[in-house]
From TrEMBL:
Protein name: Rhodanese-like domain-containing protein
PROSITE patterns: PROKAR_LIPOPROTEIN (PS51257), RHODANESE_3 (PS50206)
CDD domains xref list: RHOD (cd00158)
Domain Rhodanese per the UniProt entry, residue ranges: 57-140
Residues of the signal peptide: none
Organism: Bizionia sediminis
Amino acid sequence: MWLYLKQLNPQKVISIYLLFVVLVVSSCNEAAHNGGVQVVSTQDVQALLADNTVQRVDIRTPKEFAAGAISGFQNINFLAPSFNAAIQKLNPQQPILIYCQLGGRSALCAQKLKEAGFKTIYDYKGGMAAWTQAGLKVVTP
């Protein structure tokens, strides 16, 4: 195969390489999507807010939540010892949208929700930082 690639012009080699990278990245994205956890953008979150069947949970600390939150979200602190008991009060059959400050905790939380039997989990990529950077409304509960 190396001999074949050496015979191609450099532009074709680069094109083949880029195609390979795109295929790998898209297959990873599809695998994450099929796992029950969907990483969503700010625009996706805005659309999901119009759906009243979606449970909305801000998983940041109460102090972070009190400093400003996205309207319509309840606060369940992912780091609190009471987290597992709190999520038992939610409906695992209904979709759930979660966010944290930057996205790290929500990724961990999404896996915990999946293990707890939640079927459809939306994890807001970038969290509160992305929301405020987009200049969107923040409420102080």
